[in-house]
Amino acid sequence: MKKLILFFIAFSLLATSCQTEKQEVTLGIDLQNSFIGDKVEVSLDGEVVMNGFFTTNDLLGVCLPDGILRMKCLTGKHHIEVRINDTYYKQQKFIVQRDLYYAVRFDRISGNITFIPFDEPFFYD
């Protein structure tokens, strides 16, 4: 009986020590290249976080003023979805472990949407 109790205590300690505590970090989403008056909707974990018409500033390479988003999120798994002009769509699951900045780029010719993760904010921040 004592061995069984010790086993359950040891198992409980091991199970709780393996769980990682979620931390709050910064997540950045930047609409960058090739937007020209495009209707864009960005959702994070099913919640719309950016919605409107966007044009890239050719000098800085980002949509100003509303194409730069900084928000707090918890470490762990997340899901981003981008819709452009109700025609082009891309989604991706990703894991956040520390501050993360996503560049969202659009190729008008192919309709390709690209997500590029960076560890540091962009120079125009």
Give a verbal description of the structure.
The protein is mostly beta strands. 14% of the residues lie in helices and 54% in strands. The chain contains 1 helix and 10 strands, in the order αββββββββββ. The protein has one helix spanning 2-18, and strands at 24-31, 38-44, 47-54, 56-57, 62-63, 68-74, 76-84, 88-96, 100-107, 112-118. Strands 6-1-9-10 form a 4-stranded mixed beta sheet, with no helix packed on it. Strand 4 (56-57) and strand 5 (62-63) form a beta hairpin. The termini are far apart. The relative contact order is 0.22. The model has no long low-confidence stretch (mean pLDDT 87).
Précis, in short:
Helix content is about 15%, strand content about 55%. The protein is mainly beta and about 120 residues long.
Neighbour order of strands in the largest sheet = 6-1-9-10
Biggest sheet overview:
4 strands, mixed
* Alpha-carbon distance between the two ends: 62 Å
Approximate strand percentage: over 45%
Which structural class matches the secondary elements? mainly beta
In round numbers, the mean pLDDT is 87
Strand segment count: 10
- The number of helical elements comes to 1
What characteristic shape results from the CA principal axes?
globular
Oligomer: single chain
Helix content range: 10-25%
Low-confidence stretches: none
Order of helices and strands: HEEEEEEEEEE
Short descriptors:
single chain; 125 residues; mainly beta; four-stranded mixed β-sheet; four-stranded antiparallel β-sheet; 1 helix
